[in-house]
UniProtKB/TrEMBL annotation:
The lineage of its organism: Bacteria, Pseudomonadati, Pseudomonadota, Alphaproteobacteria, Rhodobacterales. Residues 75-451 form the Circularly permuted ATP-grasp type domain. It comes from the Bacteria. InterPro entries: ATP-dep_Glu-Cys_Ligase-2 (IPR051680), CP_ATPgrasp_2 (IPR025841), UCP005522 (IPR016450). This is Uncharacterized conserved protein, circularly permuted ATPgrasp superfamily. Coiled coil: none annotated. PANTHER family: BLR5612 PROTEIN, SLL1039 PROTEIN.
Length: 475
């Protein structure tokens, strides 16, 4: 018989005093909506997603890999005060991560000071020796920082992980809002909700602001995609279209002299800023993987000579490694002289003997992640796993301890979500997008991912999660 007390989850809509203030109008809205209308609206939302082409790809599971991402119509709401704290904490973290990248690709003062182990940085597979000693424009390495957050209480937020390379999902943030405004315009009349639709303009301005010094005209920005087989291809096309810039593949660009050019029907056009949505290894076959057919031969040579800016910079991935994550609070103290506004989740590093001993003794209670894993893959949620799954992970950790971290199973907050019977609480996380260029900018909102399966803590779309609109109430 299981006598364990089930965890208590913070319900973002209600507390002991009843419905929380930011949700009061939404409570009236869903209670007065007939179930038939709700079903019609849900089908309408799915039809809009399908017509627009909002899909994601999951390969290796058989069947059609292109899937419609599940959309939940019940918005998630933050008060202006809650958002102000998050905004300050996210900007602080994004700034410290960029200072860390500038440092470790230069003098490495944080390593010399003994605040972070040298092996974690310089032997990290994401560390690119090719850019050591190079300083990109405005000293910005990571231009779009996606910070994954979870909430555990009224004023308790934790950073789950950092995404400093090419964080995806912002197209869902924008399309979720667009679809909600189409389907429920009255909600936006009755509620003062901060807009997010200026994100594409802010992104374009951020990219243009880090054009190289050799650029003597209005910077030409392009989005570099691996192509239509990529799982986030819809987002690549969406962002290029919204910014009014060209979407290109590697074969559309070429290097001549000290610059990069785009092939067009009107002849070559010089490119100044490349928002790349492919991994470092594929950017330039002359510098990285020689078998890459996705990149541009000679691109890194132009980049290092200051002829083009690549966003985010090659090598930025060393800052979002899960082993490096443990040291981000220390980065904030070291570079900014401040205490972190947002806390990390307590983390055990399996490469350390004492931590590993604790993890192996408590696997059924912990969440274990691959240091280089993503998308909800390569992880163990102990309380939701079978004995055989736990034992399989035990063997993996013992075989490669440095490849794993472990964290306590957090009591993720829940948000009301539409189900067959009406609404029910489901676990959520949040990914806001911080833009780093000439200035630091954050649109008021982000991508809320929701674990649609009852009791599940895994919100990734590839693992059955969905998305919902995220509201920040205007002041």
């Amino acid at each position: 018989m299981n006598t364990k007390t089930p965890p208590v989850y913070f319900d973002e809509m209600s507390d002991t005093g009843g419905i929380r203030a930011p949700y009061k109008r939404l409570d009236d809205w869903h209670r007065t909506m007939p179930s038939g209308i709700r079903n019609i609206k849900q089908h309408e939302a799915e039809a809009l997603f399908r017509r627009i082409g909002i899909t994601f790809a999951v390969y290796g599971e058989g069947g059609d890999p292109e899937r419609l991402i599940p959309f939940d119509m019940f918005p998630r709401v933050f008060t202006f005060g809650e958002w102000r704290k998050l905004e300050r904490g996210i900007k602080q973290r994004a700034q410290a991560l960029n200072m860390f990248l500038s440092d470790v690709y230069d003098r490495g003062e944080i390593v010399k000071a003994g605040r972070i182990p040298a092996d974690l940085v310089y032997r990290n597979e994401a560390f690119e020796i090719a850019v050591h000693g190079f300083r990109p424009p405005k000293s910005v390495f990571s231009h779009i920082v996606g910070i994954d957050l979870v909430r555990t209480g009224p004023d308790q937020f934790y950073v789950l992980e950092d995404n400093c390379r090419t964080p995806s999902g912002v197209s869902y943030m924008l399309e979720n809002r667009e679809i909600m405004m189409r389907m429920f315009p009255d909600l936006f009349v009755k509620n003062r909700i901060a807009p997010v639709d200026h994100y594409p303009n802010a992104l374009k301005s951020t990219l243009a602001s880090v054009a190289p010094q050799k650029c003597d005209h209005e910077p030409r920005v392009v989005v570099l995609t691996p192509g239509h087989f990529n799982s986030a291809y819809y987002e690549h096309t969406f962002l290029a279209d919204m910014m009014g810039v060209e979407l290109v593949e590697g074969q559309d660009l070429f290097v001549e002299g000290d610059f990069v050019y785009m092939k067009t029907t009107e002849g070559p056009k010089k490119v100044d800023v490349i928002y790349r949505r492919l991994d470092d290894a594929f950017i330039d076959p002359l510098c990285f993987r020689p078998d890459s057919m996705l990149g541009v031969p000679g691109l890194m040579s132009v980049y290092l000579s200051g002829g083009v800016t690549i966003c985010s910079a090659p090598g930025a991935g060393v800052a979002d490694d899960k082993a490096i994550y443990v040291y981000v609070p220390e980065m904030i103290r070291f570079y900014l002289g401040e205490e972190p506004i947002l806390e990390n989740v307590p983390t055990f590093q399996c490469g350390k003997a004492d931590d590993r001993k604790y993890v192996l003794e408590n696997l059924p209670e912990l969440v274990v992640k691959e240091v280089h894993g993503s998308g909800g893959y390569g992880m163990l949620v102990g309380p939701k796993s079978s004995k055989s799954q736990i034992e399989a992970f035990r063997a993996k950790i013992e075989d490669n301890p440095g490849g794993y971290i472990a964290q306590p199973t957090l009591a993720l907050s829940t948000c009301p979500t539409f189900v067959e019977e009406g609404i029910a609480p489901r676990h959520v996380d949040l990914r806001p997008y911080c833009l780093m260029g000439e200035k630091i900018e954050l649109v008021p909102g982000g991508l809320t991912r929701v674990a649609l399966t009852e009791g599940s803590l895994v919100v990734n779309s590839s693992q059955g999660g969905g998305v919902k609109d995220t509201w920040v109430m205007a002041e």
